[in-house]
Amino acid sequence: MTAGAPGSVGILGSGRLAHALQQSLSAHGGTVSVLSARDPDRAALLDLDLTVLAVSDDAIGPVAAALAAESAGRTGQGRAVVHCSGALDRTPLAPLAERGWRIGCWHPMQAFATTDTPIAEGITWGITADAELTATLAIRSEALGGHPLVLRDQDRARYHAAAAMASNYTDVLLFHAMRLLEDCGLEPAAAVRALLPLVRTSLDGVELAGLPDGLTGPASRGDVGTLRRHLAALDDRPDTAALYRAAGLAAHDLLVARGMDPATLASVDAALRDPQEPARKIT
Predict the structure, then answer these.
(1) 36 torsion bin: left (phi>0), alpha (psi -120 to 50), beta (else)
(2) Which of 17, 21, 79 is nearest to 51 (CA)?
(3) Can you give the residue ranges of every domain in the chain?
(4) What does pTM read for this prediction?
(5) Of 25, 110, 121, 132, which one has the greatest count of Cβ atoms within 10 A?
């Protein structure tokens, strides 16, 4: 199945990712069939070259086991089943491997906010599979404008934690920043509108300068007075203050990499540290 990669594809799922995969794969040639994970005819997808389980992480194991139980009379010869979880390895698909299907993981490193969100150009696809299936999935990833990243089974949880930190927790930071601007009198939508260009230009800076040089702001300048003023202003928002402190202290290694002198670094850490917590040793 490697050489020509389109081939026939079956997608099991009915959510945002399933819809995005259907649209993108259909646009790049080949036959694409989509069924709900609860469809009584779902095992028919196993007759296609590639079956993609675009279901929740918790559903992958039960769905794979059910497909294996329903696979009587079918052959996995030359066919493969993959799931789209970033965090899970191939283990949940083992019942299908035992019946002859190649198994793998094929995760798009992208957020799908709505059912109309398309597969974006330039995203990374986290792939875990045997050599032949890896080659097939890499071809498909590149055909969709993406970049294949081959991962070991044991690295997938760490890989997905990186994705969650960069994507999901950006939203968390924005939520807390939005609330602070609400305290200043802005409506939520206006607050988000004010913050998004800042986020985009910050990411542009990282893309241009890389890390650690893309880091800006008072901590990067050693502006201890501003850090203290920020925390004083957050006195009535202890949850946000704790997040501010944690994010600032987490910048420690970036500041070291930027070459900040030890005395300034110690002052920044001291300004950000909760007075009730022990001092951090500067190395």
Answers:
(1) beta
(2) 79
(3) 9-151, 159-272
(4) 0.89
(5) 25
